[in-house]
Write a structure and sequence with these properties.
Layout (H helix, E strand, L loop, with lengths): L6 H4 L4 E4 L12 E6 L4 E5 L2 H13 L3 E7 L2 E7 L4 E5 L2 H13 L3 E4 L8 E15 L2 H13 L3 E7 L2 E16 L2 H13 L3 E5 L1
Antiparallel strand pairs: 1-10, 2-6, 2-7, 3-5, 4-5, 8-10, 8-11, 9-10
Length: 200
């Protein structure tokens, strides 16, 4: 049974990009921005209009929301437990959504290189690997993470557990802010059976 990955590793802000079959040869794919929260977040509103606009956007993004009235303001609590993604055509849109999501406390992941993420970890899993999960939340967390990383994933349920079959036949890359996070991701990926390369 695969143990759930530590949340601190799941929310490292990284940059993801598709690469060719040979390590180090990167090619850009569709611009995608992925996001999630590690715990419920809260925002305070005194303007009903601002509250409505923010809550509408969060719901469109698939987040759970809840309101609470307090003295002179309203608290909006929101949460996205699993990775979700937006596919965007323009870099300006990517930058806009990155600012908005970051300002609301989301962990944000890109699939294109970024100047603030100079170190890279390349990874692949050429053959299908089956992982068994007895906890549905752990299975869901891994499923969404693998999808976010650009892997192929298939799911099947057997009695009291769920199987995930995953592979990444082509080399892919994540860019991270520093050496420590690069090694943290290498540890996670190696534990899951991926081959990895690190450049800095």
């Amino acid at each position: 049974m695969v143990q759930p990955i530590q949340l601190t590793l799941l929310i490292l802000t990284i940059v993801v990009a598709q690469v060719s079959a040979a390590p180090g040869e990167t090619k850009q794919t569709i611009q995608r921005i992925s996001f999630r929260t590690i715990k419920p977040m809260s925002a305070h509103f005194t303007s009903e209009q601002d509250l409505e606009a923010t809550e509408k956007t969060l719901k469109q993004l698939g987040c759970e929301t809840k309101r609470a009235q307090h003295d002179g303001h309203i608290d909006l609590t929101y949460e996205s437990k699993f990775w979700r993604s937006l596919s965007l055509k323009e870099q300006t849109e990517v930058a806009k959504w990155n600012r908005w999501l970051t300002s609301k406390g989301f962990a944000v992941v890109h699939n294109t290189p970024h100047k603030d993420h100079p170190e890279t970890v390349q990874y692949r899993l050429p053959d299908w690997k089956t992982m068994h999960f007895h906890q549905p939340l752990a299975a869901k967390a891994h499923l969404e993470m693998f999808k976010m990383l650009g892997c192929e994933v298939k799911t099947t349920k057997h009695g009291d557990h769920e199987d995930l079959r995953v592979r990444c036949p082509a080399w892919q890359v994540i860019g991270v802010p520093n050496h420590a996070e690069a090694h943290a991701w290498m540890g996670v990926l190696k534990k899951l059976g991926f081959a990895t390369l690190h450049e800095h």
